[in-house]
Model the fold of this input.
Amino acid sequence: LVMQRLAAALGVGAAGVGAYAFANPDGFPFGQKKRTIMILFGPPGAGKGTHSPKIVEAKKIPSLSTGDMLRAAVAAGTDVGKQAKAIMESGGLVTDEIVIGIIKDASKGPDCKNGFILDGFPRTVEQAKKLDEMLGENKEKVNSVVALEVPDSVLTERICGRWIHKESGRSYHVKFAPPKSLKPGEKATEKNMKDDETGQPLMRRADDTEAALKKRLESYHAQTVPILKHYEPAGIVTCVNANQKPEAVWAEIEAAMAKIK
Done:
């Protein structure tokens, strides 16, 4: 009787219900496509700003920055945004639960129908576990973790010469990837460092210094890298050699995306 009622609701025969169940082993709602849920890791200067926009274009999924989402939630006055605003105004730190709530709300948007990339979250194994729990509520899970790897000794030159287009996240470098506005032999300044596509001024992060980099790398290795071990048993982690030409790095990322199930 249950099968008959379900068949009537779906507009198929009883055999069709069985076929539907077989074709949907992950338990997704009828007609819902399994989404790509990727976490992009990498220390400062590893090339996330260069390759993340390419992944966005290739997979047709947005990159969700927790910082941007937090500010947007506060500005929009959502329930989670109001909670975050109250905590920040009192001088407190936004809890993992609130950040997870913001990701949950953002992931329901139409732009995330095919999935999304998380950049900047999770930062700890505990956050990763809470993310897994949240995704599990909808019978989903992280199905790709890409880690860009570069020796610490190489990162200093990359970081100290980096300029960024804030709006798009496009990244440039005075030596390795200069914008068209920087002429050969010129010293990089705010006047001659402009985005190739929009012509808007580029910016440098205040913490893109050698002293700040050392602290950031220590934090990255101590907290973030263990997350890779958390996801390794699932067979979804790909470590990419990002200390090579951009096209070679991208080829490894494409291979990682091809393995997403």
